[in-house]
TrEMBL record:
Site (Cleavage): 196-197
Residues engaged in binding substrate: 225-228, 248-251
Record keywords: Autocatalytic cleavage, Hydrolase, Protease
Species, as recorded: Stieleria maiorica
Protein name: Isoaspartyl peptidase
One GO MF term attached to the UniProt entry: hydrolase activity, acting on carbon-nitrogen (but not peptide) bonds, in linear amides
Length: 476
């Protein structure tokens, strides 16, 4: 009997520390002193050590000026939304950045600007795309949010809307000005086509989050091309229950992966910390060299990461932090478990694949301990060729494995709580790992334990268990 039960349990595998799911943000705010936090970016891309001094200092000064505006606003009790708008306006007016005045040009040599803003309190949002005459796209995006029932206006209609709102308009030539350290010709940026977009995320002292992003897009883009910056959920997202996010990089990849929303969803649905969610996206979903993210969580944690050689960015908070950078150490990723106090895995290493598998195992245990067999099954290869071996018996296929679990573990009491330890990773090839480990299961009436061997293969949807062999320590 015990053997039969434990056989099934072993499939569970491994987990050591499980993060608690995001809790009530209002509680988080009232538990400590009033706090605010802000992060900004001025684009991810090439290596700043290869820039000339003029360009480096222009970028640094632009970041510092923008961050100062945001810090002063928030420290004075201003709203996150106002801070985001004011910070981005300042960078739009600074030709060192690829937004507003310094926007890069299309293949045909024109500027087509995109921007979006989101209010984490209500999930209200506004965006404009492909505009050609608006001096500060972020402010018009905010007007789309507050003055229309729409979310996104594009092209001539968006320019006309801006005119109707009496916002400052400019001759398109305004965007053709030169900026420090580089020319503004459409042939200038071929080496570094994704650079200089601006963004801001903020938490105000009332506990509200906001996010915004503004860009000229990618250099030499096709006329009409729209990137992720004005797409809520891709380049920008804010929700008071989780976090505020602004991205920069290859917009098409951010759209394909719904990056900004995914960070929030991982916090809410998988219970990940902001740092774990960002690390996962930057190391697993996005290929190296794609871009960066700035985020702030509902409880004021700031996370900034990039997988490009550099990202202009800055952060400030009510604890006195105020810093700007052109490159983050290790791309902003935690160096070790010590550095990330809530990474959901033990023995974190720099091997991104190993880390991904550890997280998968951790989430699987989390699901089990929450009584959710369906979510637990997500780690398995959804294929008829999945094999699960235990006590000399073979169960074949994802459906049969799930049915077996459901039958043997009809409720949470039967499932008990599982923990995993002593994981040993053996890479078999680029796309396969063998993982050995020890499992223990506690239930009201008995404690169980044993060993397991898992084989993981990289599938198009991510790492999945393709084979699971489990055994019991002391079968009775
Ligand atoms: N994400 C922007 C876009 O694809 C560009 C960038 O961030 O550099 O339009």
């Amino acid at each position: 009997m015990i053997r039969t039960i434990s056989v099934v349990m072993v499939v569970l595998m491994v987990s050591t520390c499980i993060e608690s799911p995001t809790t009530n943000p209002a509680h988080a705010q009232t538990a400590g002193p009033t706090r605010w936090a802000i992060a900004i970016h001025g684009g991810a891309g090439g290596d700043p050590s290869k820039w000339n001094d003029e360009k480096r200092s222009a970028r640094r000064e632009g970041l510092e000026a923008a961050l100062t505006i945001g810090r002063d606003l928030l420290a004075g009790g201003g709203s996150a939304l106002d801070a985001v708008e004011a910070v981005i306006r300042s960078m739009e007016d600074n030709a060192s950045f690829n937004a507003g005045r310094g926007a890069v040009l299309t293949k045909e040599g024109n500027a087509e600007l995109d921007a979006s803003i989101m209010d984490g309190r209500t999930r209200a949002c506004g965006a404009i795309a492909g505009v050609t005459t608006i001096k500060n796209p972020i402010s018009t995006a905010r007007l789309v949010m507050t003055e229309t029932k729409h979310v996104l206006l594009a092209g001539p209609g968006a320019d006309a809307f801006a005119a109707s709102q009496n916002v400052p308009l400019v001759d398109p030539k305004y965007f053709l000005s030169r900026r420090p350290g580089r020319s503004n010709s459409s042939t200038d940026t071929g080496q570094d086509p994704h650079f200089g977009t601006v963004g801001c995320v903020a938490l105000d002292s009332a506990g509200n989050l906001a996010a915004g992003t503004s860009t000229g897009g990618t250099a030499k883009k096709l006329p009409g091309r729209v990137g992720d910056s004005p797409i809520v959920g891709a380049g920008t997202f804010a929700d008071n229950a989780s976090c505020a996010v602004s991205g920069t990089g290859v917009g098409e990849e951010y759209i394909r992966n719904a990056v900004a929303y995914d960070i929030s969803a991982q916090m809410l649905y998988a219970g990940l910390s902001l740092e774990s969610a960002v690390t996962e996206v930057m190391t697993e979903r996005l290929k190296p060299g794609i871009g960066g993210l700035i985020c702030v969580s509902h409880d004021g944690q700031i996370v900034m990461q990039h997988n490009t050689p550099g990202m202009s960015c800055g952060a400030a908070d009510s604890g006195g932090r105020f810093e700007t950078q052109l490159v983050l150490d290790n791309g902003g990723r935690p160096e070790s478990n010590d550095a990330a106090d809530d990474l959901p895995v033990a023995g974190h290493t720099d091997d991104a694949d190993e880390t991904a598998i550890r997280r998968l195992i951790d989430r699987q245990a989390d699901a089990w301990n929450a009584g959710d067999i369906d979510r637990f099954m997500d780690a398995y290869w959804k294929n008829e060729r999945l094999t699960f071996v235990s006590g000399g018996n073979v169960t074949r296929g994802w459906d049969s494995t799930r049915d077996r679990y459901r039958q043997r573990y009809p409720d949470q009491e039967a499932m008990g709580s599982v923990a995993f330890s002593d994981l040993e990773f053996l890479r078999l090839d680029d796309d396969a790992f063998q993982v050995l480990g020890v499992w223990t299961l506690k239930r009201d009436d008995e404690d169980l334990g044993g060993r397991f061997t898992l084989v993981f293969r990289r599938q198009p949807e991510g790492w999945r268990i393709v084979h699971d062999h489990t055994s019991v320590q002391n079968p009775q």
